[in-house]
Amino acid sequence: MTASPPNPVGARILVVDDEPDLRTLYELTLLREGHEVHAAGTVAEARDELAAQSFDIVITDMRLPDGLGLDLLRELVAQQRTERCIVITAYGSAENAVEALKCGAFDYLTKPVDLRQFRSVVASAFQTPGRLPAPAAKTTGEPVTPDDPTRSTTPPADRRNSPSSDAGLQAPGAQALARMVGESPAMRSVKHRIAKVARSMAPVLVHGESGTGKELAAQAVHANSHRHAGPFVPVNCGAIPENLLEAEFFGARKGSYTGAATDRQGFFQAARGGTLFLDEIGDLPLAMQAKLLRAIQERRVRPLGETQEEAVDVRIVSATHKDLAAEVQAGRFRQDLYYRLNVIEVVVPPLRERREDLPALCEALLARIPGDGSGAPHRLTERQMTDILAAPLDGNVRELENLLHRAVALGEAGDSGFGELPLFDSAPAAIADDPATSREVGETSAPSAAMSPTQDTLPEDLERWLDAQERRVLVRALDETGFNRTAAAALLGLNLRQIRYRMSRLGITEPGSDEPADGDR
Ligand SMILES: Nc1ncnc2c1ncn2[C@@H]1O[C@H](COP(=O)(O)OP(=O)(O)OP(=O)(O)O)[C@@H](O)[C@H]1O
Fold it and tell me: Residues annotated as region Disordered (predicted)?
């Protein structure tokens, strides 16, 4: 059955539902929005419609008399069709919703369907201006949401897009991926995955060690999604006082708590139409996890002091350096929330697994550091590059960035505009000081390799070698905390007395004090 508006300017949509009343309701709603609507009551009828022509959107109920809406979805994905699929699931069926997204649904709706939400999800699925080329459809169970940049009426096979090569992407998606410097196989695979998974509503969990570039990855997911013109709202879940979490997330009405002098919107409202990036999600207290889960499931939030809930249309991307599955096991993270957030996982590898990216990364990071006004870019000497290539860099790109900042700040500008000051005024200094290894920093890669957990040569003097390791860790923690001993101790699970004792034993003093600085050689 087909129904067309008088002047079709909208999407061509196939509605699959066996309940005539609901089908009619969906049809009328869509027709009023200017869409062309085709309807089917069974999987078989839907297959016939799909064999005859292509659509922009397929909206299917999950349970149909002769099969599941998911079957249709899987067939569309397997055939690399470009239709965006919206699955309607029964109320409270979190498994179905998550499974639909994992299978490649663009989005899902829960019964009873809220018509405003219905219209908004359809509008999201049908983005006319600047529709981006689709990621490649595949059969591994990863979500794929093929787009159709031309919205042509050619047969499905001709409407396929080329795979997600960066070249095919338009700004700002391609720009966001380009900001993630690195062409190592590990980074290429991360970027490819981001381009592939970005374009549905499926929640993404970015996992990786601290400083690996998780926020950059989250920004790239947003920039490659149909929501790229909407806001990207980053939130550090670990930095908000527990008593303010609810107001910060969901908003608050004037007078709803001490200090609420005016109405204020929360992160969810601020991210409407865009992406809410929940960084350090593993640090969210359990009570707030329950509220977040509800907001994600219902897609509605209630500001503090408000009686009514309001609908929010946001995509959730979260990030953590923690092993969330282990946190679930330990009872510190809700399993249902983990399940809800981790529909798609993007893993950002540590720098040690992509050392070939170091030269390009150094160049890009140095280019961000303001110059001396001469216009000459900061450049590394060969020796400095050798040092960097050999350094452990456990702090990943952020550590590299800090190291370069320090080197530029402390360096005496030479011809290159970049000084010869040793880059490693902390970590490798400990090794150079160490008679157990007795080599100069940067002389070869061996001294730093000696610090690497992967090296297999034995130290000549275990005690001194262990001291050197301990010194390196302490100096780094002190460095990262601006030489705040209490904060450094907390980072390392020590108390103030313990860190003081260790610093004194190893002769670590604050740079600038009368005694030799800990990094001095
Ligand atoms: N591939 C990359 N190319 C260029 N810069 C990068 C890259 N990865 C990270 N950076 C830079 O390193 C710094 C840390 O990155 P980011 O904040 O994204 O890491 P993170 O994993 O979110 O850190 P944390 O776990 O501490 O929140 C930022 O300044 C970022 O711009």
Answer: 130-175, 435-457
Is 344 in the same domain as 358? no
Q: Report CA(365)–ligand 1 centroid distance (Å).
A: 11
Decide: 398 in ligand 1 pocket, CB within 6 A: yes
Q: Pick the residue whose CA is nearest to atom 16 on ligand 1.
A: 213
Counting DSSP H helices and E strands in the chain, the numbers are 21, 15
- 324 and 360 in a single domain? The answer is no
Task: Say how many Å lie between the CA of residue 144 and the centre of ligand 1.
Answer: 26
Q: Which of 279, 318, 397 has the most ligand 1 atoms within 8 A of CB, as the residue to mutate? A: 397
User: 89 alpha carbon to ligand 1 midpoint, in Å?
Assistant: 38
Total of domains in the chain:
3
Atom 25 of ligand 1 has which residue's CA nearest to it? 210
Residue 279 in contact with ligand 1 by CB distance below 6 A: yes
Q: Is the ipTM of this complex over 0.90?
A: yes
> Taking every pair of C-alpha atoms in the chain, what is the biggest distance, in angstroms?
87
Q: Whose CA is nearest to atom 15 of ligand 1?
A: 213
Residue 340 sits in a domain whose CATH number is 3.40.50.300
pLDDT at 372 over 80: no
What number does the ligand 1 atom closest to the CA of 182 have? 1
Residue nearest to atom 10 of ligand 1 (CA): 213
Q: Which atom of ligand 1 is nearest to the CA of 321?
A: 25
> CA 141, CA 459: separation in Å to the nearest integer?
48
Q: Closest Cα to atom 23, ligand 1: which residue? A: 211
Confidence of residue 4 (pLDDT cuts 50, 70, 90): low
Examine the pLDDT at 161 and tell me if it is beyond 70: no
Same domain, 340 and 366: no
Residue 460: predicted pLDDT: 77
d(CA 478, CA 489): 8
Are 176 and 256 within one domain? yes
Rounded distance from Cα 216 to ligand 1 centre (Å): 6
Domain check: are 336 and 226 in the same one? yes
pLDDT digits over 140-155, tens only?
333 333 332 222 323 3
Could you identify the atom of ligand 1 that is nearest to the CA of residue 215?
18
369 lines ligand 1 (CB under 6 A): no
- Contacts from 350-353 at CB under 8 Å and sequence distance 24+? 350/208, 350/209, 350/212, 350/396, 351/212, 351/393, 351/396, 351/397, 351/400, 352/392, 352/393, 352/394, 353/186
**Average pLDDT value for residue range 364-382:** 78
What is the residue range of 333's domain? 171-349
Residue 225 belongs to some domain of the structure:
yes
Examine the domain organization and report whether 305 and 182 are in the same domain. Answer: yes
Same domain membership, residue 328 and residue 190: yes
Domain match, 208 and 337 both? yes
- Evaluate the CA torsion angle 373, 377, 383, 387 in order and state its sign: positive
Position 150 in a domain: no
How would you class 457 by CB atoms within 10 Å of its CB: exposed for 0-12, middle for 13-18, buried for 19 or more? exposed
